[in-house]
Design goal:
This protein has a seven-stranded mixed β-sheet with strand order 3-4-2-1-5-6-7, sandwiched between helices. A six-stranded mixed β-sheet has the order 9-8-10-13-12-11. It is of the alpha/beta class. Strand 5, helix 2 and strand 6 form a beta-alpha-beta unit. Helices cover 32% and strands 22% of the residues. Helix 1 packs across helix 9. The chain binds adenosine-2'-5'-diphosphate.
Length: 339
């Protein structure tokens, strides 16, 4: 069983290496690919130095390819990877809206992955984090409408996003002009209500990804969703305020109980002791923190909650590896089956 990472030198690639070290995925060989700029660099995996290769134009001799080098690379090369016999778990948005490509959060719709035709899409980070918290509530109480406001870390723009926050903060603290390269405006001491390009309806593409992808993962096209996506000056871990209108009324205690039993969720909800989800505590954690669970003052029987999830883990690398584990545990990967 051979695993390859394409985009191994990036922010998500780095996390893929760390998650694979902890993973139950059974594999014999790990190949690392990035742009030709990184060829010959070495990265550490399980105490060994592995050499990075330039991503070839055609097939890669691997059973599973974890792709995280951006949409254009995936779009151009994934068909050749599939042709070569690999299962591609793609972190980009290139195939997410293709009806033949499953879009998977294993805790929510793992079985959808089994119907793949070579490519499985990993959702947008904001969507994956919300889905882990909202899907159990949807199953129990039927979500009718969902209103989301996000507080998204600079890591959403990759390593260069995090670098920009650090560099600009240093500049501002030293009386220099912050500049703006990765983000439209200086990010330190600011919040920017734009992530990705604006569409004709006034929503950004990031906001529409939450709408389209949540519906596809939860499997309910009638779900009404509205999102405001905002970039904030944190390094990693996205937070989201979520309001839910429900078909059947839920109390906060019922929701807490349900979420305590849900896979991938940590209920962190005790206002009296100032316990709630935050990037500070959710960073590096596999579970998505959920808290501030309270009855909605707007939708009768509805809920308000706040979630924080490590964008590079559940929002990207961890979810991708969990998809591979899910397939292997069900004997749906070539190579050795986990025993
Ligand atoms: P490199 O480090 O060689 O540029 P991030 O999302 O953190 O910006 O990371 C993007 C990842 O995608 C990096 O590993 C980067 O490699 C890789 N990448 C960028 N352009 C290409 C390309 N043309 N072919 C293969 N990998 C690429």
């Amino acid at each position: 069983m051979r695993v390859a990472i394409v985009g191994a030198t990036g922010a998500v690639g780095h996390e893929l290496l760390r998650v694979l070290e902890q993973s139950t995925l059974n594999f014999d060989e790990l190949q690392l690919y990035a742009s030709p700029r990184s060829a010959g660099r070495t990265l550490t995996f399980a105490g060994r130095e592995l050499s990075v290769q330039a991503t070839p134009e055609g097939a890669i001799d691997a059973d599973v390819i974890l792709a995280s080098a951006g949409g254009s690379i995936s779009k151009a090369l994934a068909p050749a990877w599939v042709e070569g016999g690999a299962v591609v778990i793609d972190n980009s948005s290139a195939f997410r809206y293709d009806p033949e490509v499953p879009l998977v959060v294993p805790e929510v719709n793992g079985d959808a992955a089994l119907a793949h035709r070579g490519i499985i899409a990993n959702p947008n980070c904001t969507t994956a984090i919300a889905a882990v918290a909202v899907a159990p509530l949807h199953r129990a109480f039927g979500v009718r409408r969902m209103i989301v406001s996000t507080y998204q870390a600079t890591s959403g723009a990759g390593q260069k996003g995090m670098d920009e926050l650090l560099t600009q903060t240093h500049r501002v603290l030293h009386g220099q002009k912050a500049g703006a390269e990765v983000f439209a405006y200086p990010i330190p001491f600011n919040v920017i209500p734009q992530i990705d390009a604006f569409g004709e309806n006034g929503y950004t593409r990031e906001e529409m990804k939450v709408v389209w992808e949540t519906r596809k993962i939860i499997g309910d096209e009638s779900l009404r969703i509205s999102c405001t996506a905002v970039r904030i000056p944190t390094l990693r871990t996205h937070a989201e305020a979520i309001t839910l209108e429900l078909e059947r009324p839920a109390t906060p205690e019922q929701a807490r109980e349900l979420l305590r039993a849900a896979a991938g969720v940590e209920v962190r909800d005790d206002p009296a002791s100032q316990l709630y989800p935050m990037p500070l505590t959710a960073t590096g954690k596999y579970d998505v923190e959920v808290g501030r669970i309270r009855s909605s003052l707007v939708f009768e029987g509805g809920l308000d909650l706040f979630v924080a999830g490590d964008q590079l883990l559940k929002g990207a690398a961890l979810n991708a590896v969990q998809i591979a584990e899910y397939l292997q545990q069900r004997g749906a990967l070539r190579g050795r089956v986990a025993g």
